[in-house]
Amino acid sequence: MTNLGLPDSIRACLFDLDGVLTRTAVVHAAAWKEMFDAYLRGRDGPGFRPFDPVAEYDAYVDGRPRADGVRTFLAARDIRLPEGTPDDPPGAETVNGLGNRKNELLLEKIRTDGVEAYDGSLRYLRAVREAGLYTAVVSSSANCRDILASVGIEDRFDVRIDGIVARERGLPGKPRPDTFLAAARELGVEAGESAVFEDALAGMDAGRSGHFGYVVGIDRTGQADALRAHGADAVVQDLRELLEDGAAQQARQVRQKQQVPGQEERP
Ligand SMILES: O=P(O)(O)OC[C@H]1O[C@@H](O)[C@H](O)[C@@H](O)[C@@H]1O
C-alpha cells in the first residue's frame, strides 16, 4: 500500500464530485425532493406519497445523470412520462421538464447557500498530485465544471468527464462504468491501475462492473454497509482517513525493514 492508502499498482485516481469533493450531494437531494413532491402533489392530490430523500434518492437518483434519475424514480413508482425535449419549460410533465425544474431549484439553492469543498478531500487531492498520480473528476452532473470553479479546483484534474462531456460522446451514465473507463483511457492507464472514489451506490456499481483496481466508498450518510455490498474495497467517512492509514502502514513497513531478524513485529 502507498502512503495514500491505495495498492501500489494504482497510477490514477478517479473522483466523483457531489458528496466526494464537494458538499453538494445534500443540495441535489433537497432539490430533487422539492421537485418530485410538487409533481406528486399535483398528480395525486394532498394524500400523495412524498419522495424519500434517503432511501429513494440513494436507490434511484444518486449518482445517475439527471434524466436517468427522473426516469428511474418514476419507474419505481410505476409512472411513465414522455421524454419531451431538453428545452421543455421547467416543471412540464415530461422527463426533461421535471429535470429542468430540479436544475432550476438546485441552482437557486447553490446561489443562496454557496458551495463548500471537503477539507479532507482537498488534502487528499493535493497528496495524490504530489505523489505523481493522475487525477480525473468523473461526475454525472452537467453542473460539474461550474461547481469545481466555484471552489477553485477546476485545474486540479488531468481529465474531466462530466454530464456534458458524457452527453456529447454518447456515454451511458453511472451505474454503467463507461464514464470512468473513458477517464482512465484518456489518462492512458488501465482500469486495473485506477482507483474510483464514490459516495453513491450507482457509482459503486460502476466501479465494480468496470473492474477498477480499487474502489473507495465515502460514507457521508451512514450507508457503509450498502457501499460495501455494492463493491467498495474500503469505506471511509473522510478521505483524510486514507492518508492516516497510509502513513501508519508506511511506518509499519519501515519498522519491519529495521527489525532484527527473528524478532516479532508488534501490531
Ligand atoms: O442535474 P445535474 O447537476 O446534471 O446532476 C446530475 C446528478 O449528478 C450526480 O452527481 C448527483 O449525485 C445527482 O443527484 C444528480 O442528479
TrEMBL record:
<dbReference type="GO" id="GO:0016787">
    <property type="term" value="F:hydrolase activity"/>
</dbReference>
<feature type="region of interest" description="Disordered">
    <location>
        <begin position="248"/>
        <end position="267"/>
    </location>
</feature>
<keyword id="KW-0597">Phosphoprotein</keyword>
<dbReference type="InterPro" id="IPR023198">
    <property type="entry name" value="PGP-like_dom2"/>
</dbReference>
<dbReference type="InterPro" id="IPR023214">
    <property type="entry name" value="HAD_sf"/>
</dbReference>
<keyword id="KW-0460">Magnesium</keyword>
<keyword id="KW-0119">Carbohydrate metabolism</keyword>
<dbReference type="InterPro" id="IPR036412">
    <property type="entry name" value="HAD-like_sf"/>
</dbReference>
<dbReference type="InterPro" id="IPR010976">
    <property type="entry name" value="B-phosphoglucomutase_hydrolase"/>
</dbReference>
<keyword id="KW-0378">Hydrolase</keyword>
<dbReference type="Pfam" id="PF00702">
    <property type="entry name" value="Hydrolase"/>
</dbReference>
<keyword id="KW-0479">Metal-binding</keyword>
<dbReference type="InterPro" id="IPR051600">
    <property type="entry name" value="Beta-PGM-like"/>
</dbReference>
<comment type="similarity">
    <text>Belongs to the HAD-like hydrolase superfamily. CbbY/CbbZ/Gph/YieH family.</text>
</comment>
<dbReference type="InterPro" id="IPR006439">
    <property type="entry name" value="HAD-SF_hydro_IA"/>
</dbReference>
<feature type="compositionally biased region" description="Low complexity">
    <location>
        <begin position="248"/>
        <end position="260"/>
    </location>
</feature>
<protein>
    <recommendedName>
        <fullName>Beta-phosphoglucomutase</fullName>
        <ecNumber>5.4.2.6</ecNumber>
    </recommendedName>
</protein>
<keyword id="KW-0413">Isomerase</keyword>
